[in-house]
Amino acid sequence: MKIGLLRNNPCYNGNYNHTINSLGLNTGNLAFWSALETIFNPERVEYKDVHPDLNERIDKLIITDLIWLREKTDVPYMQKLLETYKGAIVPMSVGLQCGSFKNDFVLSNQTVSILKQIEERSIIGVRGLYTADILNKHGIKNIMVIGCPSMYQGIDPDKLTMRKSVTDRTPFVSNFKTFYSPLTEKEKHFLSYCADRKSFFVEQTNKPFTEEQANDKNYFIYITKWLNDNSHIFYNIEDWKSNTERYSFCMGARFHGNVVSLKNGTPSLFLTCDSRTKELTDFFGLPTLELNSFDKTKSLEYYYELADYTAFKKKYSINVDTFLDFLKRNDILRYVLLK
What we know:
Elements: E1 2-6, H1 16-22, H2 29-40, E2 43-45, H3 54-57, E3 58-63, H4 76-84, E4 88-91, H5 109-119, E5 124-126, H6 129-137, E6 143-145, H7 157-160, E7 173-175, H8 185-196, E8 200-202, H9 211-214, H10 217-230, E9 231-232, H11 237-244, E10 250-252, H12 255-263, E11 268-272, H13 275-284, E12 288-290, H14 300-306, H15 310-329
Parallel strand pairs: 1-2, 1-3, 3-4, 5-6, 7-8, 7-10, 8-9, 10-11, 11-12
Helix pairs in contact: 4-5
């Protein structure tokens, strides 16, 4: 019997949208999945392969499907999984998707039912204190706050506290949230700041930047040219790391985009714009700046100095111990390959 990880195999058939779909509509999942695969070496279980015979092969099944719980929204395929697979399902980094820390966030009755069924089989690993509080309010108690497993593999806190010399013209890596709504003034400032310095931009989704989002034709033309010349998307974690390892700094609103740079020993400044990112950065003590506080007149050196990893380093060993305790309580520590 083995431990399993529920995820699709990425499809590299030349079809851009098909490939993104196979990666869960966001290449940031690669950081999450690759960490779990390095930690456990699990059998990869595709969604199409969820059949009763899974019970004969898989002792425990790790899932990452509940990291984007939206208010009053169902996750029907999870009920099918629970009915088909009778073993322990261990969710990692369960979290809410919310623009702010909404105290009266309402989970759908079906989602509550699914989580209560899961907690009868295992301890649920949740992203942060906010998610834990909301789940408790819905009667879901068998939980532990663990952050994100992507932070427990391939990161050396000591490297992140070693300061380098950075000037305003130092090449750096940037990322941004999904292009899906009109940009705020501060968001425009951040993108033009990156464009002015021709930063190496990492995209994670297939949502295009549009003129409607820019609401300014000249701005749209300027940012589009920069994106066309400097935007990159990666379909495996090693390519992502190798193409960004030469940079001394990373800055952006993508949690996993920044985490990949951390795995290269590169300090990242996390620009927070929703509860998800803030919840994770608070838990790990990561350096943050609210995206709405971004100041385009500040130098790159200024933002580099904000990426102070002293607090992170102090908390990291405690967080690792918490994660290992979570694995032990779920009886999956025995599968861990990393010692």
